[in-house]
Specification:
heterodimer; A: alpha/beta; 6-stranded mixed sheet; 4-stranded antiparallel sheet; 11 helices; 14 strands; elongated; B: mainly alpha; 12 helices; 0% strand; globular
Chain lengths: 318, 251
């Protein structure tokens, strides 16, 4: 369905995207995961033909987008970070315009607009002016625009950014419902979102492809080194010594505390040390206030993954 | 080809769902009307006086219509930047350019569509101007051939303004910047032949050739010269071509 071969984009001396290659099969939902500025948007813009790549190739259903832009673009639906709407138009006028722009045959336009409105739950705002709609609705108009011509490949750049939790849940539901007919690539910087919606995650950091894997595998790989947060009421030094003495603990780093409460970040190697840590605190006669695994930030996940030996990045790739 | 009309229709829809186009049209009618009235009043006064002092017969063409066409040209110089300044800048700012550039449309179709849309508005303006001219045609005996030539001149000059305005608008997402730069460029092109007044030789020749006014003058006098046609057409084609190139390279 989609093949990306050694895609590179250079802005002056800066490499925004550096030799990314991957492929996506028909009907898959794939997430681009990466922190802001990782090159997600640039990659998507090159896939959609908005930006010419410095090097590399993009093929959609085997059609190279650089050589045959019109043919390839007909097969793409694209929702940029900001929904590309004209605020002065009504939803209906706008969708009709997009339908003509996407070369939907004249007699089918009405039915397609109808269908897109129904799927994106826009029926009750069809005659409203887009500029007066809420952000959530505007995002849905953007989605309707992307699926209007029923393209094989849907590219969604941060489809849930800026939405409230209920709206982003609805949007995720909608995207999942689209998966049957369309191949979907979406970008996000939220790991849990990628895990909820996608079968495969492509991780990008600083313009480079870090890993391609299923969300479950990624979560497992990331959890290899357990980092735990321990909060106890007691003298900081004595508690730290007791925690450090627990077998399996590699390092104890003090964190913010005060008021007789001490906080530590405990690195464990291999074994599950949670019970032993709890025992150590209680045996010392201190109060255990909190003991939980530290959620790794996205940046830390990248550090973890990039630090891992190279073969680890291979499994899960078709 | 159908994509071209899709773009034209969209642009027109946007002109007329906002007050922008109505304001431009209405103000143009007022300003051109004022110019027409003052030229005509002057002419009437002179013709009364002329009869008294036995001067030769007065010419409607050179005393009413020629200056009127010139003033209409100046009015276009002020108004057209306001029409072109949003064409690309607004799409760049709001991100709708991403929709246009990722749709199965040729860049030239988008550029041409936008140009034709603004050109349509120019034609509407000139129809308003033609209303005033028709009054003269009805009551006087102007040289009709010269009138057609003058309108052709206005269309070509306006078209060149529009093509250059489109090009400038494609360079910035800021409408004000686009408008001001466009206006400044038009003004420079308008006054470029002033150098001929105090200089001679190659350089002043170049400036005189670049000047939009010196080419326009011939049209108002009823002269259609190939040299002038080539000047305007190359501005239009060059402007549109560069705009398309610019869109291809732009981020």
């Amino acid at each position: 369905m989609l093949e990306v071969v050694h895609l590179t984009k250079q802005y002056g001396p800066k490499l925004a995207v550096n030799g990314i290659s991957f492929s996506v099969k028909k009907g898959e939902i794939v997430a681009f995961l990466g922190p802001n500025g990782a090159g997600k948007t640039t990659t998507m813009r090159m896939i959609t033909g908005y930006l010419p790549p410095t090097a590399g190739e993009v093929r959609i259903e085997g059609i190279p987008i650089r050589q045959k832009p019109i043919e390839a673009k007909r097969r793409i639906g694209y929702l940029p970070e900001l929904p590309p709407v004209y605020p002065e138009m009504t939803v209906e006028d706008y969708l009709h315009f997009v339908a003509r722009l996407k070369q939907v045959p004249g007699r089918e336009i009405k039915a397609r607009v109808e269908r897109a409105c129904a799927r994106c739950a826009l029926a009750d705002v069809r005659r409203r002016i887009i500029g007066r709609l809420s952000k959530g609705y505007r995002q849905r108009v953007g989605l309707a625009q992307a699926i209007l011509h029923e393209p094989g490949l849907l590219i969604l750049d941060e489809p849930t950014a800026g939405l409230d939790p209920r709206q982003s849940n609805e949007t995720r539901e909608l995207i999942r419902s689209l998966a049957g007919e369309h191949t979907v690539i979406l970008s996000t910087h939220i790991l849990s979102e990628a895990a909820q919606v996608c079968e495969r995650v492509i991780i990008i950091n600083r313009g480079e492809l870090v890993a391609v894997d299923s969300p479950e595998n990624l979560a497992r790989r990331v959890k290899n080194t357990d980092t735990l947060l321990v909060e106890a009421r007691g003298p900081a030094e004595a508690v730290a010594r007791a925690l450090g003495a627990v077998p399996g603990v590699a390092a104890v780093a003090p964190r913010a505390g005060g008021d007789g409460v001490a906080q530590f970040q405990v690195e464990a190697k291999g074994a599950d040390v949670r019970e032993a840590l709890a025992r150590a605190v209680v045996n010392g006669g201190w109060g255990l206030l909190e003991l939980k695994p530290v959620e790794l930030s996205l940046e830390e996940i990248f550090l973890n993954l990039t630090a891992a030996p190279a073969p680890a990045a291979a499994p899960g790739r078709p | 080809m159908s994509s071209l009309w899709t773009i034209v229709r969209k642009e027109w829809k946007l002109y007329f769902v906002t007050p922008a186009a109505y304001v431009v049209l209405a103000l143009f009618a007022v300003i051109a009307g004022f110019f027409f009235y003052s030229m005509l009043a002057m002419y009437v006064m002179q013709s009364l006086g002329g009869g008294m002092f036995g001067q030769g017969s007065l010419d409607v063409n050179s005393q009413v219509l020629q200056p009127l066409f010139f003033d209409i040209g100046i009015t276009l110089l002020f108004l057209l930047p306001m029409i072109t300044m949003r064409t690309y800048s607004e799409e760049l700012r709001s991100g709708t350019i991403e929709l246009l550039k990722t749709s199965p449309v040729r860049r030239m179709e988008v550029v041409l569509g936008k140009f034709l849309a603004t050109f349509g508005l120019l034609i509407l303006l000139l129809i308003i101007a033609a209303g005033y001219v028709l009054i003269v045609v009805h009551y006087g005996k102007p040289d009709l051939g010269a009138l057609w030539a003058a309108f052709l001149g206005l269309l070509l000059m306006g078209g060149s303004f529009l093509a250059l305005g489109l090009l400038i608008s494609s360079f910035t997402r800021n409408q004000i910047v686009a408008g001001v730069v466009t206006f400044a460029l038009f003004l420079l092109l308008w006054v470029a032949n002033w150098v001929t007044a105090y200089g001679s030789g190659t350089i002043s020749g170049i400036f005189s050739y670049l000047s939009i006014t010196s080419h326009f003058q011939n049209f108002t006098q009823g002269l259609i010269d190939v040299k002038d046609l080539i000047y305007y057409l190359s501005l239009i084609v060059g402007g549109l071509f560069l705009t398309a190139r610019r869109m291809e390279l732009a981020e």
